Amino acid sequence: MITSKFSNTAYFYSILVISFPIISAYFVRKILGFTNGDYNWQIILFLVFAAILILAVVIWGFFVEMNVRMAKFILDDEKIVIKQLLGIGTQRQHNWKDLQGFVIRSFVTRGQHQEHLYLIKENKSVAVMSSLYMKNYMEVRNQITQHLELLK
């Protein structure tokens, strides 16, 4: 049995996503303190823009990064168990025989090679793991290659 381990980057990004709205609200409140209650159209525009930005970052960070890519994987000889939200969220499991295979997408960001591995079932991705967020990504990937075939 192999269990995925999160990298420091996963924990760092999680802390950022959780703390971003709190820190942003603090700064918005500080900026509003400078207006002395005089809310002209520029201040209202700033508030709307800040709210949209904060909401977009939280939605992307929580629902995409933390919920999808920062999942914990537990692999054994019969199945793979996926626990979302850093291993504390909902749990799904798939038998190896029910999965079609996997696809790997490689890319370079900030001069660093990264991979996303997608598990495919009925021509749809049912899970994704990222080399950025997983400390033992190669070990988990090698275990997956023993059970599934690489699709194109």
Tell me briefly what this model is.
Keywords: Membrane, Transmembrane, Transmembrane helix. With about 150 residues, the protein is an alpha+beta fold.
What do these coordinates show?
The protein is an alpha+beta fold. The chain has three helices and seven strands, in the order βααββββββα. The mean pLDDT is 89.
CATH architecture: Roll
Distance between the termini: 27 Å
SSE ordering = EHHEEEEEEH
Q: Helix count?
A: 3
Instruction: Name the poorly predicted regions.
Output: none
Largest sheet, strands/sense/barrel: 4 strands, antiparallel
CATH class: Mainly Beta
Radius of gyration: 20 Å
Q: CATH topology, which one?
A: PH-domain like
Strand arrangement, major sheet: 1-2-3-4
Share of β-strand residues: 25-35%
By oligomeric state, this entry counts as: single chain
- The proportion of residues forming helix, as a percent range, comes to 40-55%
Number-wise, the strands total: 7
Structural class: alpha+beta
Count of all domains = 1
Which shape, going by the Cα principal axes? elongated
The average pLDDT score comes to 89
Keywords: Membrane, Transmembrane, Transmembrane helix
Transmembrane segments: 12-29, 41-63
